[in-house]
Amino acid sequence: MIPKTWVGNLLAITGLIVCGMAHAQQHNTLNAQEKAQGWQLLFDGQSLGGWHSYLQKAPGKDWKVSDGAILLEKRPNDPAADFQDLVSDAEYGDFDLKLSWKMSPCADSGVMFHVHESPRYSNTYETGPEMQIADLACTKPDSRVLKERSGDLFDLISSDVEWVNEAGQWNDFEIIADHGHVRFFQNGHKVIDTQLWTDDWKQLVAHSKFTAWPDFASFHTGHISLQGTEDKGEVPIRLWFRDIKLRRL
What we know:
Elements: H1 4-23, H2 32-37, E1 39-41, E2 51-53, E3 63-66, E4 69-74, E5 86-92, E6 95-103, E7 108-115, E8 130-134, E9 171-178, E10 181-186, E11 189-195, H3 199-206, E12 222-226, E13 237-248
Antiparallel strand pairs: 1-13, 2-5, 3-4, 4-13, 5-12, 6-9, 6-13, 7-8, 7-12, 9-10, 10-11
InterPro entries: AL/BT2_dom
GO molecular function: hydrolase activity
Domain 3-keto-alpha-glucoside-1,2-lyase/3-keto-2-hydroxy-glucal hydratase: 38-247
């Protein structure tokens, strides 16, 4: 016979689990504390309102909403306009941005900020610094190159450890930009901490491929961008984003 105290403890634990599940925050929502702190949703889980493809009036055809997430699903022969990078309608200067993402195996993407949208620039990355998204092992060559792995400040600064989950699992990103002080967090771990626009920063950019674009990372405000133009990964290439929220600083 199972002692009554064991039964009681088991029921208590079960009750706590059920209660916790009942009170777990739904995706693409803000709780009372977040609302009080000034957080705003950049994705409501139902539509692509507030987003468009770079230099286009609306999202490209390969971007859609599926099961409460922004989904990019692309194939090699799709027109470039269909998977052009998604950018926020609004622009942001100093902010705290949080989002979750997952990918199909070996895919490649990134989250950019301070993107300046103008016909002068063909691509988002000509102006916007990028927090890299890459599979842990099989995004070639990115996952095997320092400064190009998930969580890195792409082509500029590499994180010490890859705190990234395998393909198919959700990952959490946080980007804090506060008067040029930029910090990246991947799955709760700080991976990048740097200061933009200093002499050291300018030297760092000068020794990277971004030296070819003189306006790279020069804007203090701009759009948030989800990269869809990379062609790495198993076909069809799939990327999901959800729980995208931002607080102006």
